[in-house]
Specification:
- The protein is α+β, with helices and mostly antiparallel strands and 470 residues long.
- It has three domains: 161 residues, PAS domain (Beta-Lactamase, 2-Layer Sandwich), CATH 3.30.450; 83 residues, Signal transduction histidine kinase, dimerisation/phosphotransfer (DHp) domain (Helix Hairpins), CATH 1.10.287; 150 residues, Histidine kinase-like ATPase, C-terminal domain (Heat Shock Protein 90), CATH 3.30.565.10.
- It is built from eleven helices and twelve strands.
- Strands 2-1-5-4-3 form a five-stranded antiparallel beta sheet. A five-stranded mixed beta sheet has the order 7-9-10-12-11.
- Helix 1 runs antiparallel to helix 4 and helix 4 runs parallel beside helix 5.
- The longest helix is centred in the middle third of the chain and has 52 residues.
- The protein is rod-shaped, with a radius of gyration of 54 Å.
- It starts with a helix and ends with a strand.
- The mean pLDDT is 90.
- The structure holds adenosine-5'-triphosphate and magnesium ion.
- Magnesium ion (MG) binds next to helix 9.
Length: 470
């Protein structure tokens, strides 16, 4: 499985080389041989023609002596490096450029027949066994008065012709080797531009899948690979923070569950083994009840938060009167408020003010905000709830004159389980989930919530809702 991409490319490179070599050994060689053979035959044929129409005719017409023509042919032979013969139609060798006719009486070529050339003007072989080596033979008829009197034959050894084409083929091999070397450069570029970055990316992706997010991919090229690396780096950092959040969340949950459970267990054990006498058991049973309520609330809040995932919660949006909802919610706090001597001031716009939202969820938002306002207010104070309408939006504000939120805590109050130090002493039952739920609900409505607070002076939460039709 390892480095298959590179192996594939290497295999492709080798196949390319082998194919190139095969092409040169077969196609190029064959074509070169054929081409040199044909062009040599062409050249010789032209010479044979010239001889047949000039010297040979003069010789037949007795304008040239045997010695003269012999001399001419010997000169041409030396120039072409090919032997020249003149034969009569029956195959009697009359003149040979390489032998004095007087020394060698005319030789008869056995079975000589010009038809053996077929339709071509040349043939390859030892010419009826008369030549010592394989040669290319061309012929041209000597025609006088429309009658064939004989033939001019020129023989050139094949070894001379193949030497020429071998030279050509060697050049082809050298070119092929050079092309092969040049494509090594392509292989190198591929390695640096594509293969190594991909290897770096896959290595990091493997590390990410194993949960190791520190391994940042170092690919900064301005192309698709660079873009992919950047996306993966971003994904890794997101996963990293997600994992961190999850760990924090679980730590918080376990902590918040453990402390009430420990105290419940401790009190029950103390009651059972008699450490807590019967007379004062009620007090501790009440504490146990309080702790179970807290656990109940915690579970409920977590279930609530769980509903708001990445896609938000399903909202049941319909127009309703926010003024009325505020009044109803405030009423549920009457008991606590008379106890703490806290009063409400409602500054509501209009008799009715309709908004388009999920009523039960908004009720929950109001409940959490008012609950906080009461919890963190001093006795004998006023909580102001105000609605205003502006640009098709309704602004709802819940304002108290309580302990306020320290500046460095302002951003964190929306986090799950976050409680300021002051609230830990003041409200032991608080889970720190209330505002996280509020934020999720408002965001699910695509609206905003903000907080303005000064420590020791008071806090104001303002959120918006879309104006609804009556
Ligand atoms: P729960 O809502 O579950 O009872 P909680 O009220 O502590 O717990 P949140 O409602 O999420 O949790 O509030 C988070 C923290 O923000 C509070 O613990 C408190 O420190 C701070 N806070 C919220 N509202 C106010 C306020 N009106 N005045 C001062 N501090 C506040
Ligand atoms: Mg709260």
């Amino acid at each position: 499985m390892k480095s298959t991409l590179y192996l594939k490319f290497l295999a492709g490179y080798v196949i390319f080389g082998i194919l190139g070599f095969l092409i040169v050994t077969t196609y190029t060689s064959q074509q070169t041989y054929q081409y040199t053979e044909e062009s040599a035959a062409d050249d010789l044929y032209r010479e044979a023609n010239t001889i047949a129409t000039s010297y040979a005719q003069s010789y037949y017409k007795n304008e040239l002596t045997l010695a003269d023509i012999q001399e001419h042919l010997a000169a041409i032979d030396a120039y072409l490096n090919a032997s020249i013969w003149i034969v009569d139609p029956q195959g009697e060798l009359l003149i040979n450029s390489r032998a004095q006719t007087s020394d060698n009486p005319p030789v008869r070529i056995d079975d000589f027949s010009i038809t053996s050339f077929g339709t071509r003007y040349y043939q390859i072989g030892t010419f009826y066994g008369t030549l010592s080596q394989e040669s290319l033979t061309v012929y041209s008829p000597i025609i006088i008065d429309y009658k064939v009197h004989g033939y001019v034959l020129i023989h050139k050894p094949m070894s001379q012709i193949t030497r020429y084409s071998n030279g050509f083929i060697n050049i082809s091999y050298t070119s092929l080797a050079l092309i092969f070397l040049c494509s090594l450069v392509v292989l190198g570029v591929f390695t640096f531009v594509i293969y190594l970055p991909i290897r770096r990316i896959t290595r990091s992706a493997k590390a990410y899948s194993a949960g190791n997010y520190d391994n940042k991919i170092k690919v900064h090229s301005n192309d698709e690979l660079g873009y992919m690396a950047a996306s993966l780096n971003y994904m890794a950092s997101e996963l990293h923070s997600l994992e961190d959040d999850q760990r924090k969340f679980i730590a918080n949950v376990s902590h918040d569950f453990r402390s009430p459970l420990t105290s419940i267990k401790g009190y029950i054990e103390a009651i059972m083994d008699g450490t807590i006498p019967h007379e004062i058991q009620d007090k501790y049973l009440n504490i146990i009840l309080m702790e179970t309520e807290r656990l109940n609330k915690l579970t409920q809040s977590m279930l609530e938060l769980n509903k708001y995932g990445a896609h938000g919660a399903m909202l049941d949006v319909s127009p309703f009167d926010i003024n009325n909802t505020i009044k109803m919610t405030v009423q549920t706090f009457e008991g606590t408020c008379t106890q703490k001597k806290i009063s409400f001031e409602l500054i509501l716009t209009g008799e009715t003010l309709f908004v388009n939202a999920d009523m039960s969820k908004i009720q929950q938002v109001l409940y959490n905000l008012i609950d906080n306002a009461i919890k963190f207010s001093h006795a004998d104070s006023t909580i102001t709830i105000e609605t205003t309408e502006r640009n098709d939006k309704v602004f709802i504000s819940v304002k108290d004159t309580g302990i306020g939120i320290p500046k460095d805590s302002l951003k964190k109050i929306w986090e799950r389980f976050y409680k300021t130090d002051a609230s830990r002493g003041k409200d032991k039952r608080g889970t720190g989930l209330g505002l996280a739920i509020v934020k999720e609900i408002i965001q699910a409505h695509n609206e905003n919530i903000n907080v303005i607070s000064t420590e020791g002076v008071g806090t104001e939460f303002i959120f918006t809702l879309p104006l609804g039709e009556q």
